[in-house]
Specification:
alpha/beta, Aspartate Aminotransferase, domain 1, Aspartate Aminotransferase, domain 2, globular, binds 3-[O-phosphonopyridoxyl]--amino-benzoic acid
Length: 460
């Protein structure tokens, strides 16, 4: 808002003194000083030094309509003046929650017609976990307690979300996973596919679901949860054989499918939802991030007619103070209006995605880039010292990715690393000219990273 702030060094010192950052080594950051973002417009961030940075991550995969949309600010201000807060507990409701629930029911696929609002993706998945278990209790099958998810999936960092996720670093802290959560391997052909073709591997990894169901006992399994395309895990696009086989297994054993659309929802993969792109039929869909383009926190569990009819039959002892917050719902409605009326989802999928795909996939000609994957506007490249063997670097996983990310940052491009994969997920409003800048900066950063790792002998 204001350019009139303390000097960067002072802000960094205050940040280090008082601000604890998520997923960050605080002492390391304190030594280095955080990069401080002060404003943003479109796909461009400005930092406290006045540098302009191309945000190829849309914040944290969320700013789908781009930064600086005044319509969203205006609607928030209007709603705050009219009704800044009211709850949806104890038989009350309000207009923004009602209208957003109706809208979500309209745009969500299949018979997902009912919305339980939450505050974020993590707590939406906690809701989902409790809801599927309670659903089976109400159906007279309380022994259906187990939920299956995947290693290297990400479903948040609350006790439930962190347990459902398959991030070993999260599980290592604080006694996770909680009981009744079981993980199967991910469909990451590049890292784990060995000598199998991608198709064979996709099938094999999907069949792990069946093996796990049989191991646990089919009558004890409540649900399977997965992202259509793993995001935080490194933009892992599953082989084409994967989801059809998962569909077959879900149907065969009659378990519920929770599709975590926190990243893939609201246009990210070329359709409104990743479930459409991947051909899957969720019983529950987890939404957050792009639902408001990140302008204000909101999460939603969008559930099927069948689940709602069972859950609504008695009191579900669950809910958050800010569930369906009127300001967040009003912003979400306006955000969806922009996505629809300005044809942002369609433009991104028809105009930008093919253009970006061509340029992104061409990065495989870089000596350090193995595979390049992209679906809609989420993409990844795998860094490797040997493309033919899909080798990993001898340096600990993530060392080379981190160097590459640092080069990107120095070149005013936000491109993240997950281990030794580099990932992008730009605002859906990115233009072709901005795609060109993204790719040019990515190449330059890759070249500089390669130079550095060669100098340090890390390129093996
Ligand atoms: N599900 C998925 C698929 C997500 O990507 C969550 C749930 C949790 O949402 P909240 O709103 O509680 O954060 C996420 C969030 C990363 C990164 O490093 C990814 C997320 C969050 C923070 C960092 O890529 N995804």
């Amino acid at each position: 808002m204001s350019d009139n702030h303390l000097p960067t060094a002072e802000l960094q010192a205050l940040d280090a003194a008082h601000h604890m950052h998520p997923f960050t080594d605080g002492n390391e950051l304190a030594k280095k000083g955080a990069r401080i973002i002060t404003k943003a417009k479109g796909v461009w961030l400005t930092d406290s030094e006045g540098e302009e940075i191309l945000d190829a991550m849309a914040g944290l995969w969320c700013v789908n309509v781009g930064y600086g949309r005044e319509e969203l600010a205006d609607v928030a201000a209007r709603q705050m003046k009219q009704l800044p807060y009211y709850n949806t507990f104890f038989q009350t409701s309000h207009v923004p929650a009602i209208m957003l629930a109706k809208k979500l029911a309209e745009i969500a696929p299949g018979d997902l017609n009912h919305v339980f609002f939450n505050g974020s993706g993590s707590d939406s998945n906690d809701t989902n976990l409790r809801m599927v278990r309670h659903y089976w209790e109400l159906k007279g099958q309380p022994e259906r307690f187990n939920v299956i998810s995947r290693w290297n999936g990400y479903h948040g960092s609350t006790m439930g979300g962190g347990s459902l996720g398959g991030m070993k670093g999260i599980h290592a802290q604080g006694g996770l996973p909680i009981p009744g959560i079981h993980h199967i391997d991910q469909p990451d052909w590049w890292s784990e596919g060995g000598d199998l073709s991608a198709e064979e591997f996709g099938l094999k990894r999907a069949q792990e679901l069946e093996a796990k169901i049989l191991e646990l006992g089919p009558e004890t399994v409540a649900a399977f949860i997965a992202e259509p395309v793993q995001g935080a895990g490194g933009v892992i696009v599953p082989p084409e054989t994967y989801w059809p086989e998962i569909n077959r297994i879900i149907e065969k054993y009659g378990i519920l499918l929770i599709v975590d659309e926190v990243i893939t929802g609201f246009g990210r993969t070329g359709n409104w939802f990743g479930s459409e792109t991947m051909g899957i039929t969720p019983d529950i869909m987890t939404c957050a991030k792009g639902i408001t383009s990140g302008y204000i926190p909101l999460g939603a569990s969008i559930v099927s007619d069948e689940i709602a009819s069972v859950i609504n039959g008695s009191e579900f002892a669950h809910g958050y103070t800010y569930a369906g917050h009127p300001v967040a719902c009003a912003v979400a409605l306006e955000n969806i209006r922009l996505l629809e009326e300005e044809g942002i989802v369609e433009h991104a999928s028809k105009e930008i995605a093919p253009y970006l795909k061509e340029k992104w996939e061409a990065l495989v000609d870089h000596p350090m880039v193995g595979e390049a994957k992209i679906v809609g506007l989420m993409g990844s490249i795998a860094l490797t010292p040997n493309k033919a063997t899909r080798a990993k670097f001898k340096a600990p996983g993530g060392t080379v990715g981190y160097i590459c990310r640092e080069r990107c940052f120095a070149n005013n491009l936000v491109m993240r690393h997950v281990g030794d994969r580099m990932i992008i997920s730009p605002p859906l409003t990115i233009t072709k000219a901005e795609v060109d800048i993204l790719i040019e900066r990515a190449r330059k950063s890759l070249d500089e990273a390669l130079e550095r790792i060669e100098a340090e002998g890390l390129n093996v």
